[in-house]
Design goal:
Shape: globular
CATH class: Mainly Beta
Order of helices and strands: HEEEEEEEEEEE
Number of strands: 11
Largest sheet: 11 strands, antiparallel
Strand content: over 45%
Helix content: under 10%
Length: about 170
């Protein structure tokens, strides 16, 4: 089945070449700035409110609110970002920008998944996808879009790829 048919069905699951973020980003410290911070040790969460900016290597996320969930050993479990909208920017290993936007984003560390919810779009290497749900898995280099709960269709723009073979 072609990607166009998958899009027409409202569900897209295809490998996206080069989707992996800059390899060194995960080795960098996480820096967070916000207007306000609330730490709830008993719940293992930190809540950042107002003009939130998270940076880790080439990764930049700007949101209105960021909630970070930790385990008992103070290791990152997940992050929830909300905004009007939340902005995402990161580089891949070829230094190409990955950009995204949504009203809500969730990062699930154990699954290596970034979920973008509500009026979401994601672009990379000139390609762009729009949907109410975009799920990016950096572990298996895949992207899924569309939702059974929504009657909105997935929209995708795919740029032609340059052939590396010399013309005959």
């Amino acid at each position: 089945m072609t990607a166009a048919r998958l899009i027409a069905l409202g569900l897209l699951l295809l490998p996206v070449s080069g989707l992996r973020a800059l390899t060194t980003d995960g080795e960098q410290p996480i820096s967070v700035e916000a207007d306000n911070l609330e730490i709830r040790d008993a719940e293992n969460i930190s809540i950042y409110d107002g003009n939130v900016k998270l940076v880790q290597g080439s990764l930049e996320i700007n949101s209105d609110r960021l909630v970070i969930h930790f385990n008992a050993a103070n290791e990152l479990l997940s992050m929830e970002m909300t905004g009007s909208p939340v902005h995402y920017r990161q580089l891949d290993d070829q230094r190409r920008e990955m950009l995204g936007e949504a009203r809500r984003m969730e990062y699930l560390k154990s699954e290596s998944v970034l979920e973008m919810h509500e009026s979401a779009w994601f672009s990379h290497a000139g390609d762009r996808i729009e949907s109410d749900l975009i799920r990016i898995n950096t572990r298996d280099n895949s992207l899924q879009a569309g939702s059974a709960d929504s009657d909105k269709r997935v929209k995708m723009l795919i740029q032609p790829r340059q052939s590396s073979a010399p013309p005959e």
